[in-house]
Design a protein that fits this description.
alpha+beta; 3 domains; repeat; Methylamine Dehydrogenase, Chain H; 34% strand; 4-stranded antiparallel sheet; 622 residues; 10 helices; 37 strands; single chain
């Protein structure tokens, strides 16, 4: 379980109660609701301009928090749906899915003060997380509400996921092609493509929609250990056992093409243009008098040129194998994002992909750097076998802070914004998300539009005091949840009694090495996988232990969340992939089929893709 703050002494509790009683009496004399109010009348309303009320006004304890409000809203929704069915005479096709609890956020809208300057909608809200008393009645801005003890408090709820990923139930494709175990996989930002790396010194790109192989990327001199897509899906980076980083460009990324359209075959027009450019270059090299014969390409040659795999360029500099890769976020640099690579040699290099030069090297670690993550606030996070997590300035490469509470190697590191940074400007449909109308960052060119869309998605993901946080897992069987390092002036850490260099919580419960950890896309939960055959769930805000998901009988290597944060999938040494029910915290669907260990698993849109030691890639769908 998470580390708990020791309870107050009897004297301190008595003094705190006296101070609370005094504050409540003062507010009562003023005719306003106070923190000691036992109950208050609440009206739940849906988000939007209409604000449709959900059920009648009800009396709730002032200590009611976000979790209790969420349970209440889901129960009222089920009751309203049950009342509609007899009248309509039609049963819902997806009753089981409709009855699932949805995640909601709650806030109280503040009235706009007369004569005040225009304020953004986010600043006109009081978000409810801990309790109504703490977040609304005790807030400094609550004075503007002017509530009396007889007034009805209007609480607005809004869903945190506007779409649903249906649970996978069957294997629809088993794809072969790799000649050695599949060691890593990475889903593209749109979810239409998948990249895999294997021990046969090749990387492959697969079309998830058609469930067919697309390209084989050859050039590596050693095992391909990691792969990472650029946020706009124009490039793919892979790292190998020899310390080389390869960057592969899409065959056609013009006019905003993504997915298979950009990585598929070349058009005949493109082939002719490339051949004309090559001929002109040769003429210039041979001199003006040279007149090479303009032979026409045969049908076989043109077909081979159209279906040729993307050409890669190698970045050399590391002396040992590559452990992790991370691209600069699109909302920071949409035109030419940089690439960070970590290595067993104890360094992290930041590359300018256009010039193929290393801009700077982060050399503060004294052992292997196992993970690198490029954050959305201008910082680079690294985790190392020297038992530390370091935070670096992405612009200058200077060390900002060292976090050194772990007692053994740090194996895994995740950011609460990983999902929105990985998907960049694309929404859950795989299309370019549109920024709000009139947004100041909107632009007409492709780079500007992508940057504006990515920035809008990032701001939405970090709104409401949800600052970017990091969590790390180690060989010491623990995880540490760290305070925000850049944004919010680490106010969350100060409120929780922590500093930027001190963790918010120490998460204990795993009995062996913590191998992998990741935040849910909505940033509310954390899932960790360990060599103790267990997957554990934690509260992402407080580090509180929630549940242990047991079902695997061997080491759990990877976990991954669906885009709606309602499904969790895990891959294990026991040769199975498992899908978990997050309502009951029990196994929902067991997905056997692999004949050996499963090293990697990931959600690609509404499908699950897994690969491992049996050299095959399996695609699972509903």
């Amino acid at each position: 379980m998470a580390t708990l703050v020791p309870p107050r002494s009897a004297k301190r509790q008595r003094l705190a109660n006296a101070a609370a009683d005094k504050a409540a009496a003062a507010m009562a004399d003023a005719g306003q609701l106070g923190p000691a109010a036992e109950t208050l009348v609440v009206q739940l309303r849906s988000a939007g301009a209409d604000g449709v009320p959900l059920g009648p006004a009800i009396s709730l304890p002032a200590a009611t928090g976000q979790r209790e409000l969420e349970m209440l809203v889901n129960q009222l929704r089920r009751q309203a749906r049950a009342e509609r069915r007899p009248r309509s005479g039609d049963a819902d096709e997806d009753d089981d899915d409709a009855d699932e609890d949805l995640p909601f956020a709650f806030h109280v809208a503040l009235p706009e003060a007369p004569g005040a300057a225009a304020t953004s909608a986010a600043n006109m809200r009081l978000q409810i997380s801990k309790s109504i008393a703490d977040d609304v009645l005790n807030a400094a801005a609550a004075k503007r509400l002017g509530l009396s003890s007889e007034d009805t408090l209007s609480i607005v709820f809004e869903p945190q996921a506007v779409f649903r990923v249906r649970p996978v139930t069957r294997c629809t494709s088993t794809l072969s092609g790799h000649a050695s175990p599949i060691l890593c996989s990475s889903s593209s930002p749109t979810g239409t493509l998948l990249a895999t790396g294997a021990g046969d010194k090749t990387a492959r790109i697969w079309d998830v929609e058609s469930e067919m192989p697309l390209h084989t990327l050859a050039g590596h001199r050693g095992w391909v250990l990691c792969a990472e897509w650029e946020g706009r899906e124009r490039r793919l980076a892979t790292g190998d056992m020899e310390g080389d980083v390869w960057v592969w460009d899409a065959l056609d990324s013009s006019e905003g093409k993504t997915g298979r359209r950009a990585w598929g075959v070349k058009s005949a027009k493109t082939i002719d243009e490339e051949r004309a450019a090559a001929t002109a270059t040769q003429d210039a090299a041979d001199g003006a008098e040279a007149t090479p014969a303009k032979t026409k390409m045969t049908v076989a040659e043109k077909r081979a040129a159209r279906h040729a795999a993307p050409q890669g360029k190698v970045l050399k500099g590391h002396t040992k194998w590559i452990t992790s890769l991370s691209w600069e976020p699109i909302h920071s640099n949409a035109a030419a994002p940089r690439l960070a690579s970590s290595s067993k040699d104890g360094t992290v290099k930041v590359w300018n992909v256009s010039t193929r030069l290393c801009e700077f090297t982060l050399g503060g670690h004294s052992a292997s750097v196992n993970v690198v993550r490029w954050g959305g606030e201008g910082a680079i996070y690294t985790a190392s076998s020297d038992r530390t997590v370091k935070v670096w300035d992405a612009a200058s490469g200077k060390l900002i802070r060292t976090l050194n509470e772990h007692a053994h190697w740090v194996n895994t590191l995740a950011l609460s914004t990983d999902f929105v940074l990985r998907t960049g400007p694309f929404d859950h449909h795989g299309k370019l998300a549109k920024p709000a109308p009139g947004a100041p960052d909107a632009a007409t060119d492709a780079d500007g539009a992508a940057k504006a869309s990515a920035l809008a998605r990032y701001r939405a993901a970090t709104a409401g005091q949800r600052f970017e946080q990091a969590i790390s897992g180690s060989d010491d069987h623990t995880l540490f949840l760290w305070a925000p390092q850049i944004s919010g002036d680490v106010s969350l850490g100060a409120a929780g009694g922590a500093t930027p260099k001190k963790s918010l919580a120490r998460l204990t419960g795993h009995q062996k090495t913590v191998n992998h950890v990741c935040f849910s896309p909505d940033g509310r939960l954390v899932a960790s996988a360990g060599f103790d055959n267990a997957v554990k769930l934690w509260d992402a805000r407080t580090g509180r232990f929630i549940a242990t998901l047991r079902g695997h009988v061997a080491n759990v290597y990877r976990v991954d969340w669906s885009a709606d944060s309602r499904l969790l999938v895990s891959a294990s040494k026991d040769s199975t992939v498992k899908l978990w029910d997050l309502r009951t915290f029990k196994l929902r669907i067991d997905l056997p089929g692999h004949s050996d260990e499963v090293y990697c698993v990931s959600f690609a849109a509404d499908k699950v893709v897994s690969g491992g030691r049996d050299k095959t890639l399996k695609i699972w769908r509903n």
